[in-house]
């Protein structure tokens, strides 16, 4: 089993006033040749967006984009629709940029900050028709058990959101003292664990708030929750 720890404080950070962004991988003005991606995971940005601001209309192509609001409300509009859509905590949005799409992602509140994870996954198919979807997930259904948020369009499991990649995004909220066993799809896959909050241990690696851990070259591993903890798993092909 290969473990790679990515402490929270080693992420790239940018303060744009309206946006405070933490970059797990090279992005915008943050460049680290050793942190270009983790398998098919290209971007994991931990953003805090000021009220009434956000990312105005801009293009994307051939990327699977997943956004997970943690607090506040996200307001989305894209070139497939003129309608503003709202995404709240415990909801997830996916967008396949495919052959090309324009979109805007804004803080839907004029009073409260918006905290979110934006995730980019390299697709296994280019030039597809752009698509968008969002879904709400009951937090009670991830209490000490895995809740799958996103999986492959080629997967026989029809639950949750879908993307063009043999990947799986899931969450779990572990109570203090609980142990959870995670099973990977294959040894060709790896899992990037983002410790949203709390304190956990995997083998001899301990993770606190916003620390991350890459786990690969195995088909299973166990997590021990030292405190109440919230975790995001991003399982992707490593080659």
From TrEMBL:
InterPro entries: Pirin (IPR012093), Pirin_N_dom (IPR003829), Quercetinase_C (IPR041602), RmlC-like_jellyroll (IPR014710), RmlC_Cupin_sf (IPR011051). Residues 150-236 form the Quercetin 2,3-dioxygenase C-terminal cupin domain. Its cofactor is Fe cation. Keywords: Iron, Metal-binding. Fe cation binds at residues 58, 60, 103, 105. Residues 11-121 form the Pirin N-terminal domain. Belongs to the pirin family. This is Pirin N-terminal domain-containing protein. It comes from Tenacibaculum skagerrakense.
